[in-house]
Amino acid sequence: MTSLRLTAVAVTLMVAAATVLGVRQRPAAPAIAPSTSPNGELRRGADLYALHCASCHGTAGQGTDDGVPLLGAGAAAVDFMLSTGRMPLADPRQPMVRHRLGWSRRDIDAIVAFVVSVAPGGPPIPAVHPEGGDLARGQQIFAANCAPCHGTAGQGAAIGEGADAPDLHEASPVEIAEAVRIGPDPMPAFDAGIIGQHDLDSLVRYVVFLRMPPDPGGFSLGHLGPVAEGFIAWIVGFAGLFVIIRLIGTTT
Amino acid sequence: MIRRLVLWLDDRLGAASFARKALRKAFPDHWAFMLGEVALYAYLALVVTGVFLTFFFTASGEDVVYQGSYAPLRGERMSAAYASVLRLSFDVRSGLVMRQIHHWAALVFVAAIVAHALRVFFTGAFRRPREINWLIGTGLLLLAMAAGFTGYSLPDDLLSGTGIRIAYSVLLSIPVVGTWAAFLFFGGEFPAPITIGRLLALHIMLIQAFILGALGLHLAIIWHQKHTQFRAPGRTEDTVVGSPLWPSYAMKSAGLGLAVFAVLAALGGLFQINPVWLYGPYDPTTVSSPAQPDWYIGWLEGALRLMPNWELRGFGHTIPEPFFPGVLLPGLLITTYALWPFIEQRVTGDRQVHHFLDRGRDAPGRSAVGVAGLAFMVLLTLAGSNDIMARFFGVPVETVTVVLRGVVLIVPAVAGWVTYIVCRELKAAEARPAPAWHALRRGPGGGYVAEDEER
Amino acid sequence: MRPVERPIAAMLLLSIGASLALAAVYAAGGQPQLEGVLLAVSLGMLGAAVITWALRLLPQEEVTDVREPEPSSPAVRAAATAALERGEEQLTGRRTLGRLLLGALAGLALVALFPIRSLGPRPGRSMFHTEWQPGTYVVDGSGRRVRDGELAVDSVITVFPEGYGGSPVSLALLIRIDPAALRLPAGRETWAPKGHVAFSKICTHAGCPVGLYRAAAHQLLCPCHQSTFDVVRGAAPIFGPTTRALPQLPLRIDAEGYLRATGDFSAPVGPGFWELSRGTNRRDAPASS
Predict the structure, then answer these.
(1) What is d(CA C63, CA B333) in angstroms, rounded to the nearest whole number?
(2) Which residues of C touch A187 (CB under 8 A)?
(3) Cβ contact B264–A237 (<8 Å)
(4) What is the pTM of this model?
(5) Are residues B329 and B380 in the same domain?
């Protein structure tokens, strides 16, 4: 009787805990205040650039063996790399991934202004207004262009040769728009000829929507799909039933 | 009151003589014999929830424009089937939980069948006179998988539609008749609007008819032949010992059934499964990552991912690569599995009737083959998620694939060999008398003296 | 109530409570998590009660059944065999009629197969030909014609033939890369004007859309089974189970700057099939690699 009772109590507690957790929602990701024009002191930018960037990208953005030339990269690219912490990259052979920021917005703007002044050309920081976009249009564009690499809920996926399409939940609207326009390695670029301004607004609106995707069914299991569901079927469903039949049946 | 009912039935059907024996029939109580029951109750849950779902599903591939309550898809073109599933999930009270219970029940149903089949295999319960039931059981396993595949493809979402596309390509790969088989089965070149209606007819009617018939036979044969049992002191090959059907076993079984429903209800409410609104409607021009089928089809997916790019071309014809992992491999595996009782009879020469069960160690060869086969299937299933594993372990997916190609051949062989040795050792150890234990005591002269106490 | 009955009573009360709570949740509009958990408690507590009752309250008795050997007694077997044989004797001996009977049954069996042919159309032209023809305009998903200059380098877009009827065999990917990087197979030097290359988007392995493009490496990846294609060398397969390159669509830029096809794909699109080789000897394009 004791083991049966204990099991019943444990199961009840676990179920209660799971219900509370399952109904709770995912918190929103913090957004970085967007900056749409490179307003910063050129001098400050030059100093920061010389300290952190020149060793790989060259003193005037001409590039070296360790870093690509910045001519024609554009304010969007520089702002994206700095805002997401992908740059500075300590080891050029490492993949560029999101990191916690060491910069302030003022520093980033200054470096962007400096780079644009010595290595002009390339896409400017895009203007984006997600509130003016259409959610359903955004879903269509996302499904056609983004979901194959980033997953249907923007959770990210492996895309071969060690490359990784990251999850999109921390990206701010400006960062999303910048990535779409510049195509940071290994991503392809989608400029205005492919995704116009209204489509971009819609797409960004949908990606922001995916920060809290509608999961009315319960635990989303990382949006990994049938693989995660299969694991749960065995280690929660079948395992639970296994325990129960061990309790009911004999061992002879 | 029940007594009055039994007498009423006896007046018309002569039921009392059946009831007299049936109600006292012995049912062995070993927990491992309940795995099949778990599958049975999962199937019952599938039927009950499934009937509810059929009252809402539209089995049509024709395009409609969605105007329901899920905002990100409003105004989009999609098949009527997909739209009906969205409506059920968002606009019908308890619709989502019924859908989820149904899908979780399908995953647990096949899991229970596999566990039950493994139990039957490793205990040798398929030996004479139960070969027929093994064949029926194989059929039930295949029907369950077919029901699952057709079922999760009904919503016509991007993920399951991709799976249907792959199934179409595997059909195409069959030599000589492949293109005809694909066009006839699907009703035209992929994607044909009529396919969904056919999947529904298969899923709710044809496959269920076969399952119910096979299940009835399966249970009737067990009832008639009586269940097997493990060896124990006092038991013989000619008797079977257990709880009486009424009331003891019936209550335990009913309780188990309720427990199965309870677990499925908990899964259905707490764990989201198949969120088709996130996948979007099926669109043959795009695809999502990651892309996997439900777990019990995973071994086929893994085989398709691991198979190297070998193709046969000659005399103006091609046997394309998907044929080998998609048709040939499963054909060989299923045939071997189905015919196993006869293969074992031929190899061991044992054609005796057996009502006692083996333990794993009693049949080292069978256990070795079983472990090797199981390891192979598990590794293939894992290989189906090679991109997820690659991301999780931070390793390129190409490396995972190449490594798994070797692993999937070597590990089952090693596991089978180790199993064989272990079983043989355990069996031999039982045959040897256990060493006697002696207590040692310090003797008066300083040395040790054995007290002749045997454990 | 005896002490041993109390836990069972508690479980049954919990079950009743959960059922009532579930009714309230349903009446209030429903909520999936609550519905599932309350249903689980209601069923589970009832099940636990029944099992506990069976294990603790019922007398634990064992019954023994005797197994009858399956084979019937020799007398019964002989009688059954005799009944079979008597029937056979009465039927045989009329050889011609017997053969005609078999013939009639075989005929009906053949006829029964005919409705299977009605299930679908004959596999045909679409296995070898798409809607792309010489001069067809390249259009994007909204039907707009694509011009030179709209696509930046390292961009990718899904395109269709103008007048697309909906059959996905015509689906294509348009990618723009630096012309100096191209290493297309022989005979395709004119197929990629200003670095615009177009390939079938349907994977030659199992038909999934090849939706992933690693721009810097110029490689297309199919997410279904990881077949990988090298764009600069004409989408030649470089990893994975696929055995054939993605068929290439020959392009030109017309006087107004629009992109147009100059013929159908270089090979039948999509996964392989028995009659595949018939389609690789084309008049309008060189054979695929």
Answers:
(1) 41
(2) 215
(3) yes
(4) 0.91
(5) no
Does residue B407 lie in a domain region? yes
Residues 84-113 of A with CB under 8 A from C: none
* φ, ψ of residue B402 in degrees (nearest 5): -65, -40
Determine, for residues C51 and A247 on separate chains, whether the beta-carbon distance falls below 8 Å: yes
Give the chain B residue whose CA is nearest to the CA of C71: B129
Q: Verify whether the Cβ–Cβ distance A160 to C156 is below 8 Å.
A: no
**What was the ipTM of the complex prediction?**
0.92
Select from B97, B130, B279, B356 the residue whose CB has the most chain C CBs within 10 Å, as the one to mutate to test that interface.
B97
B119 neighbors B35 (Cβ within 8 angstroms): yes
| Residue pairs between chains A and B whose CB atoms are closer than 8 Å | 194
* B244–C63 C-beta distance less than 8 A: yes
Please check whether residue B224 lies inside any domain of the structure: yes
Q: Are residues B193 and B270 in the same domain?
A: yes
8 Å CB contact of C70 and B308: no
A238 contacts B113 by C-beta, under 8 angstroms: no
For chain C, the chains sharing at least 3 beta-carbon pairs closer than 8 angstroms are: A, B
Residue of B nearest to A250 (CA): B30
Query: How close does chain C come to A163, measured CA to CA in Å?
Result: 9
Dihedral through CA B184, CA B189, CA B194, CA B198, nearest 10? 40
In this structure, which topology does domain A28-125 adopt according to CATH? Cytochrome Bc1 Complex; Chain D, domain 2 (1.10.760)
Q: How far is CA A25 from the centre of its chain?
A: 19
Domain edges within chain A: 28-125, 128-214, 219-252
* Beta-carbon separation of A226 and B115 below 8 A: no
CA A62 to chain CA mean position, Å: 29
For residue B283, the chain A residues in CB contact (below 8 A) are 143-144
Number of structural domains, chain C? 2
The CA distance from C231 to C217, in Å, is 9
pLDDT in tens, chain C (289 residues): 788 899 999 999 999 999 999 999 999 999 999 999 999 999 999 999 999 999 999 988 889 989 888 888 899 999 999 999 998 888 777 788 888 999 999 999 999 999 999 999 998 888 899 999 999 999 998 899 999 988 988 899 999 999 988 788 999 999 999 999 999 999 999 999 999 999 999 999 999 999 999 998 999 999 999 999 999 999 999 999 999 999 999 999 999 999 999 999 999 999 999 988 876 644 443 334 3
What values do phi and psi take at A232, rounded to 5? Answer: -65, -40
Number of domains in chain B: 2
Distance (Å) from the C-alpha of residue B287 to the closest C-alpha of chain A?
A: 5
Q: Decide if A28-125 and A128-214 have a common fold.
A: yes
Q: Across the interface, do C34 and B257 touch by the CB < 8 Å criterion?
A: no
Place of tokens 């971009």: A200
Q: Which of B105, B421, B58, B34 is nearest to B263 (CA)?
A: B105
Distance, C-alpha A139 to centroid of its chain: 17
Do C176 and C151 meet the contact criterion of CB atoms below 8 Å apart?
A: yes
Partners for A (CB, 8 Å, 3+ pairs)? B, C
Amino acid at C187: G
Picking from C41, C57, C73, the residue at the C-terminal end of a domain is C57
Report the chain B residue with the minimal C-alpha distance to residue A155: B289
- Asked whether the beta carbons of residue C65 and residue B291 sit closer than 8 angstroms, the reply is no
To the nearest whole Å, the CA of C156 is away from the closest chain A CA by 7
Q: Which helix (H) or strand (E) holds A139?
A: helix A135-145
In tens, the pLDDT along C139-173 reads 998 899 999 988 988 899 999 999 988 788 999 99
B391, A164: Cβ pair inside 8 Å?
yes
Q: What is the pLDDT of residues B352-404, one digit of tens each?
A: 999 999 999 999 999 999 999 999 999 999 999 999 999 999 999 999 999 99
* Among the partner residues C123, C212, C277, nearest to B317 by beta-carbon distance: C277
The reply to whether CATH 1.10.760.10 applies to domain A128-214 is yes
Separation of alpha carbons C36 and C28, rounded Å: 15
